Amino acid sequence: MRSDPVTSGQVNNVSTQSSSHVATNNATARIAETAATLRLDSLPSHVIERAKDLVLDHLGVTLYGTLLPWSQHVRAIVISEGGAKESSLYGGDHGVPARAAALANGAAAHAIEFDDTHDESLNHPGAVIMPTAIAMAEALERSGSELIAAIVAGYETQCRIGSALGSDLIRYGFHPTATCGVFGSAAAAGSLLRLDTAKMIGALGLCGSMSSGSMQFSEDPLGTMIKRLHAGLPAERGVLAAKLSANGFTGPRNAIEGQWGFARAFARQEQLDRITLGLGEQFEIERITVKLYPCCKMFHSLIEAIETCQREHEFEADDIARIEPFGPRNMMDTHMEYRPRSTMSAQYSLPYACAAAIVLNPSDPDAYNEKARALESVRKIMDLVEPSVSDELEAMFPRRFAAGVRITLRSGKVLAHTVLDARSSPDVPIGREEIQSKFRTLTSAMLSPDEQQRMIDLVVNLDQMSSIRELRHLLRSAACPNSTGTFGN
Question: Cα separation of 357 and 300, whole Å?
């Protein structure tokens, strides 16, 4: 990839701190103004600490993800194209242009379905915003405090826009992360470029023509690598949009709410007021789920319901006669593959999620690989799954990702349990220690215990860092002898 046309020096000449207030109530202008003017000293301490926790979760998930075949494909391309060595590829001593780093690291961040989620918007914001913000902070030599502010700005933008469109995106065949992500990426990149409000509006204007991402991957069990790019592509495009706007390239000012804007083009029942509701007072980064299972978030409450039945009644797989999962319609739609033929299709298969919960360890990424999928015990359980839609739980979606299960044993006994909010959801949060434990597990093959602790300490003190050079050094030095990963096909 050729070097990006805007260097850090040029950017500093082109963009300035926000110098004017945009006196308009439209959604694009208001979210752009927030992204352009947000600073660390305006954020509550709990928001700052939450951002740090999500940075660490992202680093652990993405470092693991770099080892996998689909990540390696993207990585090989960006390395072969070369260009300015301004930003790091995680897990290797390679410097590439910031856009290329956002692309490759974004794809790796979404490589194992373990990256964070924003339930209401059905988005994976961290896999888009974190690679963008880290690449740009490194390229522009920004401080840790500016990095955190940019991350929060990105989450605000992507999650609020996604929430305004609700489940319409998926209903009409668009993937929310891929379509909304470019706005979040542009907001984060624009914050680090120090765009003023007018140029941030311009960057978001360009995003309206960069949004794309088909849900067709969910219909093709062998064509699912593309979903990994559904974080990398919007990350790359957001950097491009912000850099173009910094250089004076203009886009429409009503890119979200306009007659042909993003909201009305991609949805039929958009709620534009949701974009500005509580803006500046309530922060979407506090409504994020840290995933404890590397599979579709729709299944997390179901997995916990099954695990509760197992724990309370101590039955074996051979004791089961029937499994009846129930939940919102989205839990079943495009998720009923009984013989998944790839890791991605296993992660998106409702029958497989039931089998993984009963026979395997559903929190282990390897529970979804080729070897696990071939187990006869797994196939037997999948064949017992007969799901149904619950009108009660459907009414809660997407505010809550609730699900339940009825398990009929061969003895005739029926076990049942419902989980309204899976553990680590916003209303049932996990603490920093559990996030750090997840990080240590995922990076155990890449970092020594001392290196793991060093990275944890760096992230905990991120707001005190004058630059992220030390973090960059650790990201580049992380490596694993098994360069193709253990996750299978």
Answer: 10
Residue of 408, 185, 154, 414 lying closest to 288 (CA atoms): 154
Q: How much is the mean pLDDT over the chain?
A: 91
- 333 Cβ partners below 8 Å, 6+ apart? none
Amino acid sitting at position 395: A
DSSP 220: -
Q: How far apart are CA 43 and CA 147, in angstroms?
A: 13
Whole-angstrom distance, CA of residue 346 vs CA of residue 351: 9
pLDDT along the chain (489 residues), means of 10: 37 36 69 98 97 98 95 96 95 93 98 96 97 98 98 98 90 94 98 98 97 88 85 98 98 94 88 94 97 96 98 95 96 92 92 98 95 97 98 93 97 98 94 97 94 97 94 82 42
Residue 404 has phi, psi (to 5 degrees) of -150, 175
Residue 450's closest CA among 195, 30, 458? 458
Please spell the DSSP secondary structure of 159-196, one letter per residue.
HHHHHHHTTHHHHTTB-HHHHHHHHHHHHHHHHHTT--
* Inter-residue contact 65 to 109 (CB < 8 Å): yes
> For the CA atoms of 190, 193, 194, 199, what is the dihedral angle to 10 degrees?
-50
Which are the contacts of 383, defined by CB distance < 8 A and separation ≥ 6?
338, 351
Torsion sign (Cα): 9, 14, 19, 25: negative
Q: In angstroms, rounded to a whole number, what is the distance separating the alpha carbons of residues 353 and 347?
A: 7
Phi, psi of 76 (to 5 degrees): -60, -40
Instruction: Please choose, from the candidates 372, 393, 371, the residue with its C-alpha nearest in 3D space to the C-alpha of residue 381.
Output: 372
Q: Give the model's pLDDT for residue 25.
A: 52
The model's pLDDT over 462-479, given as tens digits with 9 standing for 90+, comes to 999 999 999 988 888 887
Cα→Cα distances 63→286, 406, 448, 454, 464, Å:
24, 38, 13, 15, 24
The residue count for the chain: 489
Torsions phi, psi of 237, nearest 5? -65, -35
Nearest to 117 by CA among 58, 49, 74, 35: 58
Catalogue all structural domains in the chain, each as residue range(s) with its CATH number: 8-289 (1.10.4100.10), 297-419 (3.30.1330.120)
pTM of the model: 0.91
